[in-house]
Amino acid sequence: MIAARRSRQLHLNAFLKPPGEFLAAWRHPNAVPDAGVNIRHLIELARTAERAHFDALFFADLVGVPFADQEVLRRVSVVNDSFEPTTLLAALSTATTRIGLIATASTTYNEPYHLARTFASLDHLSRGRAGWNLVTSLNDAEARNFGLAEHVEHEERYRRAAEFHEVVTGLWDSFDDDAFRYDQTSGIYFDDDKLHRLDHRGRYFSVTGPLNIPRSPQGRPVVVQAGSSETGRSLAAAVADVVFTQHPDAAAARAFYVDIKARAAAAGRDPDHVVVLPALSTIVGRTLTEAEDKADRLYALLDPRVALADLAYWLGGVDLSAYPLDGPLPQLPLSNQSRSAQRLIVERARARNLTIRELARGLARDDRTIVSTPEGVADHIQEWFETQAADGFNVIFPYLPETLDDFANLVIPHLQRRGLFRTSYQGRTLRENLGLPRPASRYARGRAGA
Ligand SMILES: Cc1cc2nc3c(=O)[nH]c(=O)nc-3n(C[C@H](O)[C@H](O)[C@H](O)COP(=O)(O)O)c2cc1C
Fold it and tell me: In this protein, which residues make up the domain named Luciferase-like (predicted)?
């Protein structure tokens, strides 16, 4: 086990998926049904998370609508009506002052110059609070919006992602930090020896550069990676500042934690500079009965057809209609979507001997959701944190705003009383709050004295 450091800080990321992660969250009586495009409501959520001192808030993204079946599609909110995340975070950057702002963007269906520019802009707009969740995208429906019949192959996506990241970080270093003089007297706007052209010629990209924006407050926005397949882990260890992940239990989380930190060290990085945040979904009540009532009321809102479609989706877009619902999961081809998500579900089915129907219901409810009291949730957090299963958590909210309010008002004070979580922001930038150094420019190494 890696030795605990005295200064080790718990980190919490608020995974906002309005109106909630649960597929029928929009039907909850306290939900804001149009939450995905309701800017007033989104500002309220961001401010609640900031008042609670979360390190960051985070928005997932797809570049398409996944469910083909209209009977399913017309019943779900979370996949087909929400703002593009970087646009949304630009707005939220003006409504908040300290919380980090992390948006998902695809390396498969973007060009690196666009993406480097967008996130550098967001880092400037927010004065150093931007983060990029680097994803390779998930499904065929997304591919079909970009001239392809099916999604790019898993390993090929990751090869492109690695070069994409290399280009983006190179572009972020285009100008030295002190390049801009804005000297009205001499007429010199910036020092041209502090401008670097990238001249990248690679397998996937040819990018001359430079990027047309000064180096951003964090030097480089925080990079998040959330793929946990073998290739996903390698990329995370090489490039990620933060890793989002999910595990069935603390033992699996500890094994992953040790593995990622060791891979980071092998890649020549300080393992403390890779912040590992497993998912944590909670429904909290003042008493256990209250928590269970809340969960039951929520779960009753889901149409079983939606649960089944969601299961088929996360298994890799398979057709389950040929198999009896009360029978076992059939053998499946290796997913070209998320291999780690597929593996988790298959392992859960096998370990608990679940039928397809039970599995679909469990997935929709997110079996790992902790339905408990504030003390119960705080105990879980403390145990995972102190036994090096996690550096903190990516907190998932089954329905909003209530589960965020409950986490902020009921759970966080417990963590603070136990000395586990901050009572005020120590840093100004997201990197500072995450305990991460500001990266040097790749061009700094070559300079005398650097
Ligand atoms: C917490 C979490 C959030 C994710 N968010 C997104 C997302 O918004 N968009 C996306 O395309 N993929 C998302 N993913 C998928 C991963 O980034 C990754 O691309 C996928 O799991 C495939 O990688 P793998 O096969 O290495 O697991 C997310 C995964 C996790 C665990």
Answer: 26-387
Does residue 400 contact residue 16 with C-beta atoms inside 8 Å?
A: yes
Helices (H), 74-191: 85-93, 112-125, 140-143, 154-172
- What residues line ligand 1, using a CB cutoff of 6 Å? 60-62, 104, 135-138, 226-229, 232, 244-246, 279, 338-341, 394
Q: 129-163 pLDDT, tens per residue?
A: 999 999 999 999 999 999 999 999 999 999 999 99
Q: Which atom of ligand 1 is nearest to the CA of 138?
A: 11
The residue type of 427 is G
**CA dist list (Å): 369 to 63, 328, 400:** 27, 23, 15
Instruction: Say how far apart CA 440 and CA 434 lie, in whole Å.
Output: 17
- Position 5 scores a pLDDT of 44
Rounded to the nearest angstrom, the distance between the alpha carbon of 139 and the centre of ligand 1 is 11
Residue 3 has pLDDT above 50, yes or no: no
User: Rounded distance, CA 161 to CA 234, Å?
Assistant: 12
Q: At residue 289, what are phi and psi to the nearest 5 degrees?
A: -60, -40
Report the alpha-carbon distance of residue 402 to residue 291 in Å, rounded: 12
Instruction: Indicate the burial class of 149 (C-beta count within 10 angstroms; 0-12, 13-18, 19 or more).
Output: exposed
Q: Is 230 exposed, middle or buried (CB count within 10 Å of its CB: 0-12, 13-18, 19+)?
A: exposed
Query: Residue 214 is encoded by which pair of tokens?
Result: 């000064």
Task: Give the Å distance between the CA of 137 and the centre of ligand 1.
Answer: 7
Alpha-carbon gap, residue 110 to 446, rounded angstroms: 31
219: region left, alpha or beta (phi > 0 left; psi from -120 to 50 alpha): left
Going from N- to C-terminal start, the domains of the chain cover: 11-434
DSSP class of residue 427 equals -
Cis peptide before 324 (omega within 30 of 0): no
CATH superfamily of 11-434: Luciferase-like domain (3.20.20.30)
Indicate the DSSP class of residue 411: I
- Going by C-beta distance under 8 Å and a sequence separation of 6 or more, which residues neighbour residue 70? none
Report the SS3 class of residue 99: coil
Give the N- to C-terminal CA distance of the chain in Å, as an integer: 35
Q: Please, what sign has the CA dihedral across residues 83, 126, 227, 275?
A: negative
CA-closest residue to ligand 1 atom 5: 60
